Amino acid sequence: MLEVKDYSKQELADLLYPHTRNPQSRLKQIWREVTGCPDLVQVLNSLHWNPHSHRYTRRQVAAIKEMLCLD
Asked: Residue 70 has what pLDDT?
């Protein structure tokens, strides 16, 4: 279960894709998931998402969790 709190991108990727061996591959997977959902990108942008930031805020994590149906 994904706890709604601030995460570094690497922490979130590690939680979501624990079976992927390479940490860079995990980051790429979460990037593809997020950018592959235009509605999620729109919501994240409204939450002041900076794609170059190294962190997701609690509100951004909540949006990711809801829109990607993670639990």
From this structure: 77
* 37/35 Cα distance (integer angstroms): 5
Cα R_g (the chain), whole angstroms: 11
Mean pLDDT for each 10-residue chunk of the chain (71 residues)?
92 94 96 95 97 96 91 64
- Report the distance separating Cα 24 and Cα 65, nearest Å: 21
By C-alpha distance, which of 58, 66, 43 is closest to 12? Answer: 58
Q: Which of 20, 42, 52 shows the shortest CA–CA distance to 67?
A: 42
| Three-state DSSP string of 2-62 | CCCCCEEHHHHHHHHCCCCCCHHHHHHHHHHHHHCCHHHHHHHHHCCCCCCCCEECHHHHH
